[in-house]
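Researcher: Please translate sequence to structure tokens.
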Amino acid sequence: MISTLQKINAQYLSSIFILMIVGSACMSANDPIVSNVDLANPDAEQTSNHTRSATPSSQTRISPKVKDTADSSSESTITSNEIVPTATAVTTTSVALTEQPKYKSLGDALPQPITEELTPAAIVAAQAEHLANLYETSVESVVFITADTRMSAGSGSGFVWDTEGHLVTNYHVIQTAIQSSTSLIVKFFNGREYRAEVVAWDRDSDLAVIKINEIDHKLIPLPMGNSSETRPGEMAIALGNPFGEEFTMTTGIVSAVTRTLSSGFSSYSIPAVMQTDAAINPGNSGGPLLDMNGAVIGINTQIKSSSRQNSGVGFAVPVDLAKRVVPSLINNGQHSYPLMGISGNEVNILLREKANLPRDILGAYVNRTSVDGPADLAGIRGDSSSTGSLNFDGDVIVSINSIPMKSMDDLIGYLALNTSPGDEIIVGVFRDGKEIAIPMTLGSRPATS
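Model: Translation complete:
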């Protein structure tokens, strides 16, 4: 009796077990097997539930065939007849993701630069470090020039132009040596001294070239900047030997550009002169005026002061002019300037009212033209007055080669820095209420004795 009941129970339990396996294997394609894991809680227990209400973000439909292809719906579907009814247990793991961040472009994913806000003390320290490094780099190219005569001893500054021994300075620094045939002594920062000879000079720009020979150390020319690109407010650094105090650095800013300054040795003016408040004193003449990167933007030449001491108004010959004059002095022994052959005034409000000029007319009013000079031959008209007073009927030069000339200083500077004797130019002239174009061939300025 007992054995019969045991057999019946065993057969009954076996039937139930088989039905459970077959039923599990024959679920429809719409009955997913879902396992959820809460990523926010990594210790949460993984559960496996059969549910028809699972959301798309938390369900995976299982295929017995493993494929690596990804579908846009992130789901793989199968039909019930694709499932082979076996007793093998099928286990899946579907991760329920938390809310994902929105799509970001590749650029958003790149590391962002780290910016550090500098304190005022750090800014000052950085500037001091930069200036100290600049001094150490540049001072090796600066020289102390002395000229001993029987009457007196003069001194000034200069700097290395090339590796062949040419040095640039002011004409007035070596003027006494020229007149008395006295040799010059040049001293470098490293202590080496050489005798120098005068190569050539240009009184109109107050520039001169001297040369040292039998050089026994490496010469490092200073890099050349562009004075035409320099703006007021930019840093200016003067190197020289004020009052004989060797290899001194002073700093300031560029106070103004395009000044016109008399050299003191010629009837012609130096164009496009730079003004600076960097301390310039006697002995600084001929030394370089540098920009913040150590490039030469000018050659220190004069100061405006009633006491022959720095008053915050110093002047430097623009390096753009030196880049034209110095090679001519080295190669030819002189520099030839272009000549238009006029004298004139800036068009100001008084002249505009007298000549009945429109408000927007700026330029250089032609007082007179030199007889048979380039302007006279081209047909430029000067004022008709033959006395000291003006009749205000002369031409106004408003442009050269289509570049506006706002003043007489602009005209002088453009000719000196951009043209040469013999060049053909087009002069824009305002005459009789309209602007006309007049072609002209530039002449050559007579040499200054």
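Researcher: Any highlights?
Model: Residues 227-321 form a domain with the Thrombin, subunit H fold (CATH 2.40.10.10).
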